Amino acid sequence: MRSIGISTLRRLANIINEAIDEIEGVYAAADMSLPSLEAPFDPADPAEALLQNPIVEGATLNIMAAAAQLSATVASPVVSAFNASQAFHISACFRAASEINVVEMLREAGPAGLHAKKIAAPSKTDPLLLTRILRLLATHNIFREVTPNVFANNRISSVLDKGKPSKVLFENPDERHTGTSGFAALVECSADHNMKGVAMLADTMLHPEEGELGFNRAYGTTESFWDWLHRPENVYKMRRFYLVIWGTAALESTDAIHKGFNWSDLPAGSVLVDVGGGTGHISLAIAQKNPGLRIVVQDLEDTIKDSKMYWKENLPSHIESQMVDFQVQDFHTPQPILNADVFMLRYIVHNWSDEHFVKILRHLRDAAQPTTKLLVIDKILVSAARVPDSGEEAIPGSARPSAPAPLLPNWGVGKAEVYYVDVLMHCIFGGVERTLKHFMEVFAKGGWKLVQVHHPEG
Ligand SMILES: C[S@@+](CC[C@H](N)C(=O)[O-])C[C@H]1O[C@@H](n2cnc3c(N)ncnc32)[C@H](O)[C@@H]1O
Q: Which Gene Ontology molecular-function terms are recorded (predicted)?
């Protein structure tokens, strides 16, 4: 198709206008205003909660997808391609700002902001360079340049706030992330080892070395990411990384786990094995609503210690009634629980190549009873084409809505996270985010059959 006609632009604009009408309608009915981009994010503001309203969520997704597609349609392709190739600058600048606690200093300064000379002083960094970093970010709606060289937080920059006085952060640099939601840690990990590993993508594709990932090329090591992370000199990085896993997991609603599987159908005393369960926060949420279930949380040694502490703090009654066990268990080795009713794998398998995933599945299959169910909780990747992968539509529950034309059917950048993580998984772990068809193929090789899919709402 060489030309699209002006109507495509109008249709994209109409999608945006209709979405704005919907958002305005929901906010007007609640007698509230949409949070401003200029002001810091306030999680306690009821107007924030309204953003989770399904109508507002759907409209927001359409705006994100349509605005990006509209801009990609009309902008010079040279400008679009150049900007896409420069996106690493945003990551690098965002990490630099986070590492020198700019967000917390700007929280303390308030809406009037702070001059770059004052922001740079506690970290003894170059104020001119800092100005250039913050200006690049402000140009992408992250921070606000109030007057030349004076910066303030805005809605986006403020989500990196670690919630501590900046003085405390500078005095205890190793503890900067301790006790935080893990979001600043996520940004710093993303623009640190993740970005460096992904930067080697083309090099490792074009000049492959046996067993070498982008991460290995970047750090000049043959170790796995996990072994490298556990090196004594990487203690800070390791704690930061686990904070990302636990912190972001805690932020995710546990609602979907209650809706996606009929836990109440399991008779009292049924056994749920949370394989690679981490802190076990999901099996804990299941146990809270289904106290008759016996839970086994399995993970590596260090993590099982965290898991025991997490349950002690959050559901001690289950420990006292001996309805939960904690097991150090490597899922690459034979599974010792032979009477499981459900094996649950949540956010595990995308870390692993098909070869490893099949081995994990085989160990579970060998330990399973004929009635044992396998519950895999992970993202399902869809293609960016409007045609479903053949075979997918036959699985109950697998159908998913597509974005209205002329939007990309997968909502394009509105739902880009899974595609970022897919490439990241390859470069750091040799893992992959799978399409449903890919899942079906690997399950079959591992001795399991996919019978039902559940997509969470939204
Ligand atoms: C992304 S986390 C997911 C944790 C948890 N399932 C959740 O949903 O929050 C991956 C987990 O796999 C664990 N893990 C990694 N390699 C493992 C292995 N070989 N055996 C058991 N657990 C492992 C990690 O320690 C971590 O807890």
A: O-methyltransferase activity; protein dimerization activity
Question: Is the CB of 346 inside a 6 Å radius of any atom of ligand 1?
Answer: yes
Note the pLDDT of residue 98.
Answer: 97
Please give the class, per CATH, of domain 87-162: mainly alpha
The string of pLDDT tens digits covering residues 11-21 is 999 999 999 99
ipTM of the complex, rounded to two decimals: 0.99
The predicted pLDDT at position 189 comes to 97
pLDDT tens-digit series, residues 280-289: 999 999 999 9
Closest-lying ligand 1 atom to the alpha carbon of residue 276 = 22
- Out of 177, 193, 281, 350, which one is annotated catalytic? 350
Over residues 128-162, the pLDDT tens digits come to 999 999 999 999 999 999 999 999 999 999 999 99
Question: Nearest residue CA, atom 23 of ligand 1?
Answer: 276
**Quick check: is 350 catalytic?**
yes
Q: Do domains 87-162 and 260-445 have the same CATH topology?
A: no
**How high is the pLDDT of residue 248?**
72
Domain coordinates in residue numbering, the chain: 6-83, 87-162, 183-250, 260-445
Hey, what CATH topology would domain 260-445 get?
Rossmann fold (3.40.50)
Q: Take atom 19 of ligand 1 and give the residue whose Cα is closest.
A: 330
Alpha-carbon span 194 to 91, nearest angstrom: 10
